Amino acid sequence: MIYKRSSELFASAQKVIPGGVNSPVRAFKAVGGDPVFIKEAKGAYIYDEDGNQLIDYINSWGPLILGHAHPPVIDALVERAEKGTSFGTPTELETKIAELAVKMVPNIDKIRMVNSGTEACMSAVRLARGFSGKEKIIKFAGCYHGHSDSFLIQAGSGAVTFGTPNSPGVTQGTAKDTLLATYNDLESVKQLIEANKDEIACLIIEPVPGNMGCIPPKEGFLQGLRELCDANNILLIFDEVMTGFRLAPGGVQQRLGINADIVCFGKVIGGGLPVGAFAARDEIMDYLAPVGSVYQAGTLSGNPLAMAAGLAMLQELNDRPAIYESIDKKTEYLHNGMEKVLEENNIAHTINRMGSMISVHFSEEPVVDFASAANAASNGKFNTFFHSLLENGIYIAPSAFETWFITEALSYEDLDKTIAAVGKAAKAL
Ligand SMILES: *Cc1c(COP(=O)(O)O)cnc(C)c1O
Fold this sequence. Notes:
This protein has 429 residues and is α/β, with parallel strands linked by helices. The protein has 2 domains: 174 residues, Aspartate Aminotransferase, domain 1 (Alpha-Beta Complex), CATH 3.90.1150.10; 249 residues, 3-Layer(aba) Sandwich (Aspartate Aminotransferase, domain 2), CATH 3.40.640. The chain has a 7-stranded mixed β-sheet with strand order 4-10-9-8-7-5-6, sandwiched between helices. A 4-stranded mixed β-sheet has the order 1-2-3-13. It has a 3-stranded antiparallel β-sheet with strand order 11-12-14, sandwiched between helices. The two termini are 19 Å apart. Pyridoxal-5'-phosphate binds next to helix 4. Homodimer.
């Protein structure tokens, strides 16, 4: 494939945008080469500026669970845009999407809309601190909760890909309030709680991480966290920015039957527009201004365009629950197909999957936490794999630490093409 125009566009972009991208994960820095510039997309396919058609497994990093330019979402957007894009006043749309979200997701009474997953997680932690009167938080190495200061400590995919797990610019004062645990390791959490008795406001976690590849929780791990939080008066925050409305209509809480105290959303909830949200039971949410004293705000929060796209997306998912079974089956099919061709070619690998999230790691060791994900990524095989797939029209994230997102738009023919490309890539490894 030829990527001439993409490379020219990248050269121009680098002159006026740092690194030529508005979010570091879009650069190909980890895998080498120039990023592909996309012109348009429809369903399972993206089309780049050189006219190449690619089968897309990024899907805007998760939001587009029904594929690109999904008609009900686009129709809702077009209809709303003509009536004005933002008023800075309450609108009925905001209540409608909130009602639907509260109906779909277990354990939440109220939800507040923001503009990104970063904002959702940042605000959720402020709320937890305000509610509990305590200051420290626990996060897990390799989990990503957006780019606000408290979270840029061992922050998974983007941050790790570029070798800045602890970003300059985060003060030591902030960093000292973020305690770091190991995913799938309850003992690491117990030790932190023991050493910081009565100081921990909340524990924030990707209940099924997708930012160090996809990592399913070990049996009893999330339940164990729930019990530790209850016993020590710590709020449990599920960052479901990636998993919310994806692993089930009610996210991981519903799929695995574990209750969180505060839940963060992003990605799917915006239907491809910039939306985040955080939600909890009344008792907690009523600490937020203007009812309570924890301040949180946003000029464009809940704007009608974003709400129209989000509402159309949630309505589709709520009305057609069979979608979940369908995307899970497609993901399983892809998993089995890739497993087969990698085995035929004697490539050491581990494939992790839950629902419609899947990741391929080039190591035989189980990938259960950040250390094992990093170990599997360290042999550099992923880069060869990535470029071989791209050469054959398959677009996965340019990092060994990212999940592939399966959408309902993918056909079994697309999956077969992908498996064939993985077989070719295996020969190149
Ligand atoms: C993407 C992501 C975020 C950040 O969301 P943005 O909209 O990029 O700010 C937070 N948490 C998780 C789990 C994510 O996957």
